[in-house]
TrEMBL record:
Main localization category: membrane
Protein family (similarity comment): Belongs to the binding-protein-dependent transport system permease family.
Record keywords, A-Z: Cell membrane, Membrane, Transmembrane, Transmembrane helix, Transport
InterPro entries, sorted: MetI-like, MetI-like_sf
Residues annotated as transmembrane: 19-36, 85-110, 117-134, 140-163, 255-277, 297-315, 336-357, 428-444, 450-473, 494-522, 567-594, 606-623
Coiled-coil residue spans: none
The protein's name in its UniProt record: ABC transporter permease subunit
Pfam families hit by this protein: BPD_transp_1
Cellular compartments annotated: Cell membrane; Membrane
PROSITE patterns, sorted: ABC_TM1
Lineage top rank: taxon: Bacteria
Lineage per the UniProt record: Bacteria, Bacillati, Actinomycetota, Actinomycetes, Streptosporangiales
SUPFAM superfamilies: MetI-like
Length: 644
């Protein structure tokens, strides 16, 4: 008798492919667009209620400026004190004379890093005179010193507090997000409203722009101090104040110096924009050159700001690493004696040489540059016009038409789905709230126009950033050639990029995109390069030993493992592009940037400009939340092996 064994097989439930849900959602959204296109749109209204409410608030401030205690005993005193502080810096710097100030920079360079930095300080500040912008450079330096001093006086203590308290850090984070995403133009309007025009309002706008980075980096520096060192200090009976002063701050010194360094860089980029509210210095030349579309006129001022930024950057970073580079300069009394001799030589020279920088030593670079730009403009007219028109007709206009003709609720659903898929539920709800805020503020149509420009600019930026970053990561020679170009590009004020773009392409949206790409590419390249270089050498060697080609190594190992850095690059590219697109409102970019610029320049449109600045912040936070958490998504679940 033969027996049969019955085998019961449990059916295996297979997970649907990971791509199925996004594709299904995309199909549903596309079907919704095709069937409901042109309905439930929100056209722009110049008389929207939020605009009128802000105008009324402005009128109240204008009427009560000289009566309300808030202004009499608060705002007015801040304006007076900041004005006096700026005047003090300006007086001291001009009193040194151009040889004395150059000697002072040489002495600081010697103290910070030796003879190389001394030569950089002397040569860099001498170049300001050779460019013919000495007096404007001194005024810019005085404004930067005033702004950075106040920003650090407030920002460093807040950063230390945030680094020691998670509760304080959580409370400050949204405020800092708004301060960093707010377009630079949007700072100017309330500054004029409360502080008038001149150095005081420019100082407040600049320090607000420079303070967030100082707070963030300082908090990070204090937070990262070794817990073991803190516990050891506490076990020896040190109080919290003693631990902070003798352990945490000394161990965080280099990173705090980076906070100072970055605050100076941010201040230098802001003082150019602040020229629109009569900030003294180099910015006024750049603004005048921009208004005349004259590259040669503003180029000396633009180069001067880059030179000043490089000198101050190298000095502050070298001062932080002085102990590591002590061999570069003698130590002890001799070191200070040489620095004193350099400074005294400058002061003595100031008594012997003319008070003004000699005209015979000035290099006139403006006229030949203007001729070269005009030649390029007319010689390349057909090419630049074709590039601009093709991009507008085939990409910008169709994409903007899709976004503005789609029902607002369908756009909101698409943003919610994308953010949920990319970053999770909480960022998705935040992104949705920001988008709905744009609708409530009456900025929907112009926000979609700005989003169009940002999406195109970010796409081009990421493509270029990936190509250049990968090339730099795979070739140290290419990286060495590219790095100084990236350094110069990152120190150049954002508004300077508009001049060559305007000269080549005229006043259009494409001009803002072109300038945005140049402005945003350097940090993207750096992040991509660092991410690929950060892939474990062991992993790379294992892939090569398994027979992977260079292309396979890149696509299947390095890029996937550098995903976090690449997504961070995308995040930074979006934020920087958005900031530049708003500045591009000066050259015909349209959208929210145009609203901000119009609100600043026309008194009757103040409300629209201010609200558009708030709208830009909401748009930036929305895009930031979509990309910010993408690198924290869980990896796809591994396939289960079923054996019979």
């Amino acid at each position: 008798m033969s027996g049969a064994v019955a085998t019961l097989e449990t059916p295996v439930l297979r997970r649907p492919p990971r791509w199925l849900v996004p594709v299904a959602v995309g199909v549903v959204l596309l079907a919704g667009y095709l069937t409901m296109r042109g309905t439930a749109t929100l056209p722009h209204d110049d008389e929207a209620a939020p605009f009128l409410a802000v105008n009324e608030a402005r009128d109240w401030v204008d009427s009560n400026r000289n009566d309300n205690p808030l202004f009499l005993y608060g705002v007015n005193y801040v304006r007076i004190y900041l004005g006096e502080l700026y005047a003090a810096f300006e007086t001291v710097l001009f009193a040194l004379g151009w040889p004395g100030l150059i000697g002072a920079l040489g002495a600081l360079g010697w103290l910070a890093g030796g003879w190389r930095l001394a030569l950089l300080g002397v040569g860099g500040f001498a170049a300001l005179g050779v460019l013919g912008v000495w007096e404007a450079s001194v005024r810019t330096l005085a404004l930067v010193l005033t702004s950075v001093l106040v920003a650090l006086a407030v920002g460093l203590p807040l950063g230390v507090w945030a680094g020691r308290s998670a509760r304080v850090r959580r409370a400050l984070t949204p405020v800092l997000d708004v301060m960093q995403i707010m377009p630079t133009f949007a700072y100017l309007t309330p500054m004029v409203l409360f502080f008038g025009i001149g150095p005081s309002s420019a100082t407040v706008a600049t320090l607000i722009y420079a303070m967030p980075v100082a707070i963030r980096i300082t908090a990070l520096a204090v937070e990262r101090v070794s817990p073991t060192a803190i516990e050891a200090s506490a076990s020896l009976g040190a109080t919290r104040w003693q631990t902070l002063r003798k352990v945490q701050l000394p161990m965080a010194r280099e990173t705090i110096a980076l906070a100072i360094n970055q605050a100076i860089m941010m201040a230098l980029s802001m003082v150019v924009i602040a020229a629109l509210i009569s900030a003294p210095g180099l910015g006024s030349d750049i603004i005048r050159g921009l208004s005349r579309a004259n590259v040669g006129f503003m180029l000396p001022a633009g180069i001067a700001i880059v030179v000043m930024a490089i000198v101050l950057d190298r000095l502050t970073m070298a001062a932080a690493k002085r102990e590591r580079t002590a061999q570069a300069a003698p130590s002890g009394p001799r070191r200070y004696a040489v620095a004193g001799a350099i400074a005294v030589a400058g002061v003595v020279a100031a008594t012997l040489l003319p008070a003004r920088f000699p005209d015979a030593w000035i290099l006139r670079v403006g006229p030949p540059v203007t001729e070269a730009v005009n030649w390029a403009k007319f010689s390349w007219y057909d090419v630049t016009t074709a590039i601009r028109n093709v991009t507008s007709d085939l990409l910008l206009n169709p994409l903007q038409d899709v976004l503005t003709s789609t029902p607002w609720w369908l756009v909101a659903a698409a943003v919610l789905a994308l953010a949920w898929w990319a970053s999770g539920p909480r960022p998705a709800l935040t992104a949705l709230a920001c988008l709905l805020g744009l609708a409530l503020l009456g900025l929907w149509e112009h926000s979609m126009a700005t989003l169009t420009t940002v999406l195109v600019a970010v796409t081009v930026t990421l493509l270029l950033g990936l190509l250049l970053g990968v090339a730099a990561a795979r070739s140290r020679g290419f990286s060495a050639v590219q790095r100084p170009l990236l350094d110069a590009a990152q120190t150049m004020p954002s508004i300077v990029y508009l001049l060559p773009a305007l000269a080549l392409f005229g006043a259009t949206r494409f001009t803002a995109i072109f300038a945005s790409v140049i402005y945003a590419v350097p940090p993207v390249v750096r992040l991509v390069e660092d991410g690929i270089r950060g892939v474990s050498p062991t992993t790379v060697e294992a892939a090569l030993s398994a027979g992977s080609t260079g292309g396979q190594l890149l696509w299947k190992v390095q890029l996937p493992m550098a995903r976090g850095a690449i997504l961070l690059a995308a995040n930074q590219g979006i934020v920087m592009t958005l900031a530049m697109v708003v500045v591009g409102g000066m050259v015909g970019a349209g959208g929210l940037g145009y609203d901000v610029v119009t609100g600043f320049s026309q008194h009757s449109e103040f409300g629209m400009g201010f609200v558009a600045g708030v709208g830009t912040v909401l748009l930036g936070i929305m895009l930031d939340r979509i990309t910010q958490g993408a690198d924290r998504r869980s990896s796809p679940p591994s396939k289960r092996m079923n054996t019979a």
